[in-house]
Amino acid sequence: MKARQTDRFASTMLWLVAIVIVALLIAFLGYILGRGLPYLTPDFFNGPEGVRGQLFNSFYLLALSLAFSLPVGLGAGIYLAEYAPQNKLTDLIRLSTESLATVPSIVFGLFGMIVFVNKLGLGFTILGGSATLALLNLPILVRVTEESLRTVPKSYREASLALGATMWQTLRKVILPTALPGLITGVTLVAGRALGETAILIFTAGMNVSRKLFDINPLAAGETLAVHLFAAKSNPLPGTNADQIADGTAALLIIMVIIFNICLTLPSRWLQHRLLGKDKE
């Protein structure tokens, strides 16, 4: 009887904590969106001080950083989980990636400024900013990939290999589809972090924006929405309403993250069903 009461008490407390967390999230989103949504007008995007360029740069930098980091991060995670021997070298690599994942982003920003802006002479560019973002996200991608693959039961591998499949076929047809939800979660986390990053981009991509529509020049300066929000509050331009700009930019960032997560999660669920051979009921 006492064990049942303890279980009910623990379940009630967990539910209360979950409700409080969800309520705080809803209150936070409601406050930000309530302040910023009224300012999301066509003039906010296309006016003389519109954020059309910053909006494009945010996704452009995100796409370039993922193009740099995904092949290396996923490949390194797959190697460590499936192919690497268990020795001191691989333990050192894991320790190094875990240590890099805890480094503050401003340190990566200073590193990017020294290497890409100064040493390589790129200046404040989208290319330098995206390369530095890739360095920031790389350790997280490696660890998430490795841990996702390790959650796949060993019996899956043994059954596939026993049927005559090669290791590559087992990896491609069995292990990766099973670990797909964890991999998608990792990519979503690093993408959301990149969308909201400021310290790195201030030092590498700069705080200027091209007024040319969809300027894909990687050697141009690339102010993003997060950097624009920082600039609007820290150094507002004379004659502008910094509070309205900041509130509208914050609301737009929230909407971007929500839409991005939805657009990434729903196709991944469909792809997982296809790869695992599950049909819709």
What can you tell me about this protein's structure?
This protein has 281 residues and is an all-alpha fold. The two termini are 41 Å apart. The chain contains eleven helices and no strands. The chain has helices at 2-36, 42-46, 52-83, 88-101, 105-119, 126-150, 154-162, 167-195, 199-204, 225-234, 242-275. The relative contact order is 0.14.
Which features would summarize this protein structure in a list?
single chain, 281 residues, mainly alpha, 11 helices
Strand and helix layout:
Elements: H1 2-36, H2 42-46, H3 52-83, H4 88-101, H5 105-119, H6 126-150, H7 154-162, H8 167-195, H9 199-204, H10 225-234, H11 242-275
Radius of gyration: 22 Å
DSSP, total strands = 0
Structural class estimated from helices and strands: mainly alpha
Number of helices: 11
Topology pattern, helix = H, strand = E: HHHHHHHHHHH
Major sheet size, sense and barrel closure: none
Uncertain runs are none
CA-CA gap between termini: 41 Å
Mean pLDDT: 85
- The percentage helix is over 70%
The proportion of strand residues reads under 5%
Shape: globular
